[in-house]
Design goal:
Three copies of one chain form a homotrimer.
Chain A lengths: L22 H17 L14 E6 L4 H13 L3 E6 L11 H10 L4 E6 L4 H11 L6 E7 L5 H15 L6 E5 L6 H12 L4 E5 L15 E3 L2 H5 L4 E4 L15 H8 L3 H4 L7 E3 L12 H4 L6 H20 L2
Parallel strand pairs in A: 1-2, 1-3, 3-4, 5-6, 5-8, 6-7, 8-9
Helix pairs in contact in A: 1-5, 1-11, 2-11, 5-6, 5-11
Amino acid sequence: MRNPQLNGHGELQHLLSLDGLPKSVLTAILDTAEPFTEVAEREVKKLPLLRGKSVFNVFFENSTRTRTTFEIAAKRLSADVINLNVATSSTKKGETLLDTVDNLCAMQADMFVVRHESSGAPYLIADHLHNTARHHIHVVNAGDGRHAHPTQGLLDMFTIRHYKKEFHNLVVAIVGDVLHSRVARSQIAALTTLGVPEVRVIAPKTLLPTDVERMGVRVFHDMQAGLKDVDVVMMLRLQNERMNGALLPSPQEFFKVWGLTAEKLAEARADAIVMHPGPMNRGVEIDSAVADGGQAVILPQVTFGIAVRMAVMSMLAGS
Amino acid sequence: MRNPQLNGHGELQHLLSLDGLPKSVLTAILDTAEPFTEVAEREVKKLPLLRGKSVFNVFFENSTRTRTTFEIAAKRLSADVINLNVATSSTKKGETLLDTVDNLCAMQADMFVVRHESSGAPYLIADHLHNTARHHIHVVNAGDGRHAHPTQGLLDMFTIRHYKKEFHNLVVAIVGDVLHSRVARSQIAALTTLGVPEVRVIAPKTLLPTDVERMGVRVFHDMQAGLKDVDVVMMLRLQNERMNGALLPSPQEFFKVWGLTAEKLAEARADAIVMHPGPMNRGVEIDSAVADGGQAVILPQVTFGIAVRMAVMSMLAGS
Amino acid sequence: MRNPQLNGHGELQHLLSLDGLPKSVLTAILDTAEPFTEVAEREVKKLPLLRGKSVFNVFFENSTRTRTTFEIAAKRLSADVINLNVATSSTKKGETLLDTVDNLCAMQADMFVVRHESSGAPYLIADHLHNTARHHIHVVNAGDGRHAHPTQGLLDMFTIRHYKKEFHNLVVAIVGDVLHSRVARSQIAALTTLGVPEVRVIAPKTLLPTDVERMGVRVFHDMQAGLKDVDVVMMLRLQNERMNGALLPSPQEFFKVWGLTAEKLAEARADAIVMHPGPMNRGVEIDSAVADGGQAVILPQVTFGIAVRMAVMSMLAGS
């Protein structure tokens, strides 16, 4: 079966999911991102790699934060960026997703950054581009339903490599609402591919997918046990809309059992790093003392996220 | 009477309507657009013609699709583009349309791309600029009420000329909701000016203006008869809000009688082209087999639309 | 006590309020703005002073007009501009203001242009940047609650200096809803600092702060008396939401007593200029004959506003 993410030469054609990307490609993206972290330190944060290219941020679901990171990355590469909030636009007029895509292709798009509430929408678009032989147009998944959020997963890997140098000797724990998290799936896929020997998930049973063990992870339903001697703690965001629902007690009760406090973090290795994809619910999934503490690398994650997105964009469409 | 669209030398000063533009100006725009179709094929899709110029997309009515085409065209010409969704802004605060315009002029605008729900609003603005002697500021009508949508009409003419080379030997049919269409009026004006000997409109009586015959068109109330031997079929979009109303039966019934199917299209010449301004209602005014078929030039219309808008903008404000 | 607006060398670090800025800094901003008024007259309205810098328009409160002026100013300085309408974004997800700021800092922002409905929010951000030693990131207050709107105050000062050359011999009257106006406070602070010997406020008692006399102004409750022999009339905007409320009669009655008409303006000096921050309520706080008359400098205010914002931005972050 054709891998829609790679072209005939095994190079990145689209970024849809970290699941299915070989280690060599993941590593190439991380390596490409390295020098981009220095661009941000310069007086003029600008490279001409995407000059004259048209990048469309096609957001079928609103996400200012994610859209902003892609917009900055594209502008620092000198691309022309067009933001489309499609929810308020053509789909209302009854146009199909692929008609919208066809129209934007006809406007000579070079890249689509796609956010969609339905899992698989970016795949559908990539397939359509393939079937219509538009091999010069690239898709980046900026989050699709519960499925994937690959640039988040990549920036997480970049962060881990930055602080821990190697993957082969790590114990990594992912904590929280794995069931509803597109971030978690991308993370597990990438950690496994990059050779992390032990990936743990720590969550209440109600917030785990039924097939979680098949993902190659160790499951814990207890924070103290799960965090024991880990090198990396990756917190997940608890969606507001989940709280007080059937699956969960109140935010206060959740915090008591599953919130990351300094006390619980003490179970981890002394040099363990704490990550969070943001935005944080302080006092729900994470205590402020930890979020602002010396082990947190939450803001560096954001910084590395720009570099990683620049890397992906330049690998896909750079001249 | 002064033609507000032309300056003292007969050159384009504003683009408000194709009605009232002489053939020489229409042809000049189409000729200017030709090389811009090649810019889009380049590695760096960028020309410096509007560098340092400020283009304001002033949309009093939301239209992401149209706004996007102008934004891309302006950015490819290196302009600074400012998007203003005025519906949510000053007019709410009680400011008049002309006060808003005066303010944007005072910010040293070079061009206004105006979308307004009221017919004539772009004329009002152009008149105001004339009366206040701001001859260096230009207006492009991006759709005003039921009146005009001239860049759509121009891209249609560009498309017809691209595929048919000449206008003087064509039979062109416009099909659908002529009554509510600002596109149809622009099309009829341009086709007539450019010398198309026979322009037909095909529509139910309820979707035709009462004075339609005075526009110099042949009226048909039957698809088969109207499409007979035509060279160009220009479909109109059926507004969702019209359906199921007093003027129309259900979408299904409309499609049965007025929808363009392969069977009906067989009445046209074998080399007839099918156009649609988008977004399409598949299964209402057009069948998918036709929309995606070999005679459809609907996506090239979009591509030519960028080139035509670049042409208009560079003729108005290019250095 | 540390002045958060100045760095250790007494140079502008943030622009938060005109209150607390020394005369030398105010004058330096106005002087810096002078040549920028000429940029706008050029064929290519573009300077490279902020090239490669990332300016974030962070608007927690919607204001298309103000956002547009900053966006134009930043683009004319060649900055990358990112518009963030935060009301519809992260704060909804429960993220705190400072977490939002931390995230944007981590994206290597160089400048925040902040609009917030709460007085003091830009100060809070500036303090946070100071406490976290991010001295390379600058804050411009684009309006906070009822507190301040310093670039509006600066463009007013620029306008007065442009037409009156000196401040030391002027009588200036501020007319209208001082109570709810963030503009008025900035104006009074700047006029006083720049040496205007007599600043008057003219308003009904219900629209004055209780401590107004402590601001060093002369209070008038009568238009004729208050406008007598003034050099500058600075009208304030009457917020729509104030009208017909407990504090005010109908717009018609307000206009009769407090609206600026030619008749009332005749009390001022013959060469007095009339200013308004916009958007105007014609027939409420100002008569159209005055707004469009020879003494009004309302549109030049807008033009100078771009130059002043370019000056502030280039002083803060220019290379």
